[in-house]
Amino acid sequence: DTEVTQTPKHLVMGMTNKKSLKCEQHMGHRAMYWYKQKAKKPPELMFVYSYEKLSINESVPSRFSPECPNSSLLNLHLHALQPEDSALYLCASSLDGGSRGGGELFFGEGSRLTVL
Amino acid sequence: AQTVTQSQPEMSVQEAETVTLSCTYDTSESDYYLFWYKQPPSRQMILVIRQEAYKQQNATENRFSVNFQKAAKSFSLKISDSQLGDAAMYFCAYTPFNYGGSQGNLIFGKGTKLSVKP
Question: CB–CB of B108 and A42 under 8 A?
Answer without folding.
Answer: yes
